[in-house]
Structures are given as structure tokens and as C-alpha cells.
Write a structure and sequence with these properties.
Elements lengths: L1 E2 L2 E2 L7 E2 L5 E17 L5 E4 L4 E5 L14 E10 L3 H4 L29 E7 L12 E7 L6 E11 L27 E3 L1
Parallel strand pairs: 9-11
Antiparallel strand pairs: 1-2, 3-4, 4-5, 4-6, 4-7, 4-8, 7-10, 8-9
């Protein structure tokens, strides 16, 4: 998680919505799912259809293992969210993280499945110039089959079985609030 090219620290750094309202991030989590890799000529090098990662601002910089593969990696492809079959599975049936996390599920309406994104915190609302728990909160939870989004990033590296390749993925936190007016719409659950 980065802001202006540096690691985002929610304890000391703020976001600003599209109207310049300061926002403090308390929770930011989302699913990355089913990654696969392709080489320079578009052939699939490796797929990981059962791999799901819950990216969490609280674990910024954590290294996740995707799996073993061998070959040149040109692009990495993945979903933001979950495929429909996984989305509509009860989290209590899973024994391994992250799909066993009931806090990422629409527990009050299980038919909706998982929340793909949780983005929560406080925004400057009382005019004292400080963003803290004395201000109004915001809560954005998003999920549902229609919100599964696919991404592709260029990685250009070689992987050899038995060796380690670390791919640095950056999430620009400012992009989350582009076009957002937190005062007009502080709560959204879709």
C-alpha cells in the first residue's frame, strides 16, 4: 500500500477525498484471487486456481507465497474479488485462511457471499483539523459476483523451481478515494 510512491502508514498519513476532506484509514482489506502467469508469447506458464490472498493494510509489506513455477514470467493475471462458486461458499466450511474469515462475509445476508473490499475509518467532520474517533466514520464494503474485476500487470522476471521470486505489487491508496465525497456518502454496502 503506497501513497505518492512511499509506503502508506495509516497511523501517520491521511487520504483526501475528491473535495479535499481528510480521511484516516482504520481498515483496508481486499481479496486477490486465482493468479496465473503468462510468458512473452502469451502462453500460460502456471495457474493457481485455488489460491486466494486477503491483502490487509495492517500487514503492509507482508510476503505471500503463491506457489511454485518454472519459466519466464511476462504478465501476472488475477482477480480482485472472488469467483462466483467460491463467493457463495459458507466461510465456516473452510479451514485455511483467508476464506475461513467470517468477518469478510456478508453474515447478515449469506446469499450475498463475501465482501471483496472493506475500507473503513474516520473523516474530518468536527472542524478541529484532526481526524480521529471524535469525527464521523466512513464504511465502504463491496462484494458480489458482478464486482469481480480482473487485472493484468507486467512482471518480466524469471522463476526457477526451488528459487524465490518476489514480485512487488503496489496498491495506490489515493486511487481508492478518486471521485469520492465522503461527507455526501459516508456509508456504502454494495
Amino acid at each position: 500500500f503506497v501513497q505518492n510512491g512511499v509506503a502508506f502508514d495509516p497511523a501517520t498519513m491521511l487520504l483526501s477525498d475528491s473535495l479535499g476532506v481528510p480521511m484516516k484509514v482504520g481498515r483496508l482489506r481486499f481479496f486477490l484471487s486465482r493468479p496465473f502467469f503468462m510468458n512473452d508469447i502469451g502462453d500460460t506458464v502456471a495457474t493457481f486456481p485455488d489460491r486466494y490472498i486477503l491483502l490487509d493494510l495492517g500487514n503492509n509489506g507482508h510476503v505471500w507465497s503463491v506457489g511454485e513455477l518454472d519459466g519466464h514470467l511476462h504478465t501476472m493475471h488475477f482477480g480482485l474479488g472472488l469467483d462466483s462458486a467460491t463467493n457463495h461458499t459458507d466461510p465456516l466450511t473452510f479451514t485455511e485462511p483467508p476464506l475461513n474469515d467470517p468477518t469478510m462475509h456478508w453474515g447478515w445476508n449469506p446469499d450475498n457471499g463475501y465482501q471483496f473490499l472493506q475500507f473503513e475509518g474516520f473523516y474530518e467532520s468536527n472542524g478541529d483539523g484532526v481526524v480521529n474517533a471524535l469525527d464521523n466514520g466512513y464504511l465502504y464494503h463491496a462484494g458480489g459476483d458482478a464486482l469481480l474485476t480482473f487485472k493484468e500487470i507486467e512482471v518480466h522476471t524469471d522463476a526457477d523451481v526451488g528459487g524465490n521470486v518476489i514480485l512487488v505489487l503496489e496498491c495506490d491508496v489515493d486511487a481508492l478515494v478518486q471521485g469520492l465525497s465522503v461527507e455526501d456518502d459516508p456509508v456504502s454496502e454494495v
